[in-house]
Amino acid sequence: MTSTEDDESPDYLNNVSQDAGVLRPIATVVLFAAILSVVWIVFAAQKPDWVDLASTDVEVSAIVGLLLAALILVSAVALRQTRS
């Protein structure tokens, strides 16, 4: 490897981290919420009487919306990284 190749890699990595901008922290929060929702689903399956926050339709809609948002945000962050 030459010294010019060594100099190009850190610049490329810096551009990727700066290009994601505000999407990366939002995606991180949404992914963490999606993980917590999966934990909540497992807990609710074990103790259904303890975790009865809303009707089943509302709970399913909220979780599907959260997982869909996580998928879209992760896809957007990945697309921005490959395009930069």
In brief:
The protein is mainly alpha-helical and 84 residues long. It is built from three helices and no strands. The chain has helices spanning 3-19, 23-46, 56-83.
What does this structure look like?
The chain is mainly α and 84 residues long. The protein contains three helices and no strands. α2 (23-46) packs antiparallel against α3. The chain is elongated. The two termini are 23 Å apart. The mean pLDDT is 80.
The number of distinct β-strands equals: 0
**Main beta-sheet strand count, sense and barrel state:** none
Indicate the structural class: mainly alpha
- Give me the Rg, rounded: 19 Å
Arithmetic mean of pLDDT: 80
The total of helices stands at: 3
Low-confidence stretches: none
Principal-axes shape call: elongated
Q: N-to-C terminal Cα separation, in Å? A: 23 Å
Instruction: Give helix % range.
Output: over 70%
N-to-C SSE series? HHH
The percent range for strand residues is under 5%
Q: Topology of this protein?
A:
Blueprint: H1 3-19, H2 23-46, H3 56-83
Helix pairs in contact: 2-3
